[in-house]
């Protein structure tokens, strides 16, 4: 129930625009690297100093106007320039909807192409993050078109989708990130049960490690991580064929530990003013992250506007009967 609640909060446009005006609040600063590029480069340098590479995500939700998509594209181009100028070990993650996928496919393709082209000039990889089921096919279409011109592009396979096995086979020659999947999906298209999702994730990881190009195993789940460690050892899979990925601010000690054990490790570094939807999805995955919120709400008086708005919404939903 809490998962549904936070997913619906993440889709609330009013709270999303309200949050943008107030900077990082409610504990979001623990999981979002900064609101601007300078702060983000500082965070990347700190992680690089521990042997951890980064993938940078310019946060953004609800992009329905061309000007907003163009602004997001410019910001991502600026990030690419900053990565190059500062010579940090980082690449780009982007969400096609932020670049206009909901406005016009070809407009979005041109935006993403410009980003991939600029990144390619500097040898920087670009990952197309995967969003909800409705965006899956057009996102793969983007990948198909871009990969005809560039090889510095890859994507994500979400293990909760029933079609994930077909997709991973089709895209085996790409650098792929394998995740469980973060959105609410129907049982017609996605496994609902955690055990089934975990089992599928393991199958997909093993298959891609044995048959694919480069595998990014993106999870905070120690059971899956331990399983992968065993699997690569048993099958003599070298460390340069895969990496572990986690989100910025999560399981920090485990991130450092894996890097110090000699595994390639990459931290997903989200930044920007549009942090609200991302933060709500993290709360949906792990309501214990509410600790972050509680600490902030009780420690600081300044969080009131967003805190009260979200709190009222949460309470309202909690007191209602469970909806379908
Ligand atoms: C780098 C990265 C990129 C991603 N990109 C995408 C994407 O493009 N599209 C998409 O749909 N989703 C993406 N996701 C989100 C992903 O789909 C999952 O929703 C998210 O990672 C939660 O699942 P999990 O695998 O981490 O494990 P969970 O199933 O959330 O957790 C499994 C177990 O791990 C332990 N655990 C988890 N978190 C913690 C913690 N913080 N502290 C202590 N123990 C913990 C707990 O025991 C928990 O029961 C991404 C995730 C990562 C890490």
Task: Characterize this entry briefly.
It is built from 13 helices and eight strands. The chain has 324 residues and is of the alpha/beta class.
Overall description:
This protein is α/β, with parallel strands linked by helices. It contains 13 helices and eight strands. It folds into two domains: 69 residues, no CATH class; 243 residues, TIM Barrel (Alpha-Beta Barrel). The chain has an eight-stranded parallel β-barrel with strand order 1-2-3-4-5-6-7-8, surrounded by seven helices. β5, α8 and β6 form a beta-alpha-beta unit. α4 packs parallel to α5. The chain starts with a helix and ends in a 5-residue tail after the last helix. The relative contact order is 0.17. Flavin-adenine dinucleotide binds next to β4 and β7. Pathway: Amino-acid degradation; L-proline degradation into L-glutamate; L-glutamate from L-proline: step 1/2. Its EC number is 1.5.5.2. InterPro entries: FAD-linked_oxidoreductase-like, PRODH_bac_arc, Proline_DH_dom, Proline_oxidase. One of its GO terms (molecular function) is oxidoreductase activity.
